[in-house]
Amino acid sequence: MLRKWIVSAPSNIALIKYMGKEDSSLNLPANSSLSMTLDQLCTWVEIERNSFGSDGVLFIPELPRELDRSFNPTVPALKEAGVQRMIRHVKRVQESVHSLFPQYGLTAEAGGQIEIRTANTFPASSGIASSASSFAAVTLASALAFCKDPDLFQKIWQGNPEFKRDLAQISRQGSGSSCRSFEGPWVLWEGATATPVKSALPEMTDLVLLISRDSKEISSSEAHSLVRTSPLWEGRVARAQERIGALRTALASGDRIAVSKIAWTEMWEMHSLFHTCEVPFTYWEPDTIRVLRWLRGILTSAPEWAPPPIVTLDAGPNIHLIVESSQAAEWKGLLKEKFPDLPLLEDTQGSGVKAVY
Ligand code: DP6
Does the pLDDT value for residue 1 go beyond 90? Predict the structure, then answer.
């Protein structure tokens, strides 16, 4: 029997960063992190399982066959190591569902030939991290493919938040930040588990200034171990935990100024870890510094019409400005006027990974 599933998962952007691991085989973080889930910047995964075929997982580097092409999807250019990491993860899901499914009255059905096709909605080589969205999508798609009763799976997925959290834990073992893409819009990842958190902020939009499209010289997985060699690592976990508490309070009360300050300090701290480790490195480009200098002024005296933007950078040179969706057009106008040479991506907050069919 041939079965096919299509799943889409958004990326997410952390304000308090997952940087440094407590256990790298399970991707348990050194500190908690807190992020906003995006909506349209996502990965689509199509999985076909032919239960009569011989056992095996194949990654096919072409667009999912039944995908809406109007949004110009691109096939991620995975190197061999990336393909192997994805295949290992599908096998991890296959093993994990044997003990997980019975807890929810589901039956696992392993074996057969698995074919995976994946596409991103963000432009190829845009410098936007895709490991969170791709591992979240592959986890849900392969769990569905290994389930004997997919209709019941969908019902439990809709009705039982614990089931979603358990799948997010499996996803985390493939790539840590992917566990935060299972919920939205605001998500706290503590220890093994990611859960949604309360926010009184209005709907938010992420504007991304694309400074470089080159792929990173140092992967985020490498950065997780390098930061431990920085003298600033001492006290890092306590500082991050303290910021988590402050950020939760600020989000719950909708205190935009406090959220912006916390995110700005945290971003500088993570990049300072990179800049001070034993063999220092940077993700910043000259344009990153040009924009950060300008933003410093904006953050100390924001335009009259708006509260300060929430500014952050991942392990890369691109700059995220999270602003109220109702003011996104004004911010875009200002950014285009100030930095006409820098392309801009835009996405709103979202609710996490979902099965399309
Ligand atoms: C800088 O989730 O990519 O984006 O678990 O090794 O796959 P692995 O790392 P990954 O790390 C993301 C790091 C970050 C910060 C964040 O998203 O919290």
Answer: no
Q: What are phi and psi of 201, to 5 degrees?
A: -75, 150
Q: What average pLDDT is seen over the chain? A: 93
Amino acid at 29: P
Mind listing the pLDDT tens digit for each residue in 153-204?
999 999 999 999 999 999 999 999 999 999 999 999 999 999 999 999 999 9
Output phi, psi for 102, to 5 deg: -60, -30
Ligand 1 center to residue 227 CA distance, Å? 13
pTM over 0.85: yes
pLDDT at 125: 57
Task: Name every protein residue with a CB atom under 6 angstroms from any ligand 1 atom.
Answer: 14, 17-19, 27, 33, 129, 131, 175-177, 220-221, 224, 314-315
Contact present, 311 and 320 (Cβ < 8 Å): yes
Closest atom of ligand 1 to 189 CA is 18
